[in-house]
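User
Take a look at the entry that follows and flag anything odd:
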Amino acid sequence: MEQGIGGTPPADFARDRADLERVIQVFSDPNRQFRWQLHPIFGALSETEWMRWGYLHADHHLRQFGAQAGMR
């Protein structure tokens, strides 16, 4: 959530993008092997709420760079 805490500084854009794509795949896999945690701001969310929040959040950041979610 906060780049200075637990994140990594920007380095190689292609590698960072590939890492993000892997994380999105894990997050959206219907057979994922993790449990939903409390959201740091919104608290307990259902799976549907997590997926909607994740989509909207990713879409917001992609639009910052002139892209839209679901598009390469």
About this structure: Residues 60 and 68 are 8 Å apart (CA to CA). The chain has a mean pLDDT of 81. The first helix runs from residue 13 to 28. The radius of gyration is 13 Å.
